[in-house]
Amino acid sequence: MTPEELVNRYSAMVYNLALRLTGDRADAEDLTQEALLKAVNGLPGFRGDADPGTWVYRITVNAWKNLLRAKAKWRFLRFFSADDPKAVDSEPADCPEAAPGPEALAQAQDLRRRVESALAELTPEERAVLVLRELDGRSYAEIAESLDVPLGTVKSRLVRARTLLAQKLGPEDA
Amino acid sequence: MAHEFSLEDLSAFLDDELPAERHLQVEAHLRSCPACSRELERFEKAGAAFREHGRRPLPAGLLGRMLRRLRPKSFKLDPTLEWGLILAVTLGIVLAGGVALKAYMPGLFSQIQQMISGAAGSLGQSN
Ligand SMILES: [Zn+2]
3-state class of B66 per DSSP? Predict the structure, then answer.
């Protein structure tokens, strides 16, 4: 695989993963670039028989963990300075896509809002499992490897994510 | 849940991630249990809603920015080298044109030669 192929093939999924890990568009863009550049640099040492997706997602998750550590350090430093820390984790900005009829649009927007409100109650790690399963159809074993967690953790996170989504989508929440 | 299977089993069933035997057991149970079937359907719909409404497109320009950062620098010529190359190619074309003109149209060639020396002569006079 060439660097171009790697970037073309995985940038959309890495971005979605990064967006749900960070919960912020600007951070997700930075993380996507960082992770893919790291993957490109590591390409010569990559074993051809391994799955490139799992490997790229793992790099993304590790880069996110490093970002968190750096932010925690930054917050710790800011604690001693004058101005109070500003929230960095805003909800991803909504960008309305091509407009169908007004009714269908309203319905889609409503569903989108419900999905986002469920995601907001999940942890980044739970959202990551959901992204890899639902948007990329990854197996539990691949997700476990990408996130460096046991298989049981993948199962339980997925159940929590689906239960919360179902709750928000359910009629009782209408 | 007062049934033989946990929500984790149902979720894993949906993803085809149960061992074969367990999968068959859940399948058989679902046929006779409306409550579990409803739960499964809720999970299915939750996944479908996320697939449809949870995906975000790549921000405009991000892919291009990343691909540009990948382009090897050796492929891009140094600007002075580039101009040098253009000059050399142009000179080559002019020289080759001159040689061809002399070989195939000697009359026109000598005419141009006279024009050039005439112009050079008038330049010399005015100086
Ligand atoms: Zn049941």
Answer: helix
